[in-house]
């Protein structure tokens, strides 16, 4: 099975399709600024769960964030969990620069 992932900026999401089908197998929705991309929701159709669609979405989206020199805010539980299991992507995580004073 081949998973193709493309960015659809007008929809503010990445879309995954399997084996050249026109049906969308999964999506990763985001909010992007000039410095940051926040992944807010990921959904994979039931028939594609466990087939690597979510991982393909995460890997492609994070690789593109790295290439664009963007920090990542993983508010989506799937992205947060995926990044925690893939330490090679943890350097992309957004770190707040503000300091809390006592």
UniProtKB/TrEMBL annotation:
InterPro entries according to UniProt: Acyl_CoA_acyltransferase, Gcn5-rel_NAT, GNAT_YJDJ
Domain of life: Bacteria
Residues in coiled coil: none
Alphabetized Gene3D superfamilies for the sequence: 3.40.630.30
Protein name as catalogued: Uncharacterized protein
Gene source species: Streptomyces malaysiensis
Phylogenetic lineage: Bacteria, Bacillati, Actinomycetota, Actinomycetes, Kitasatosporales
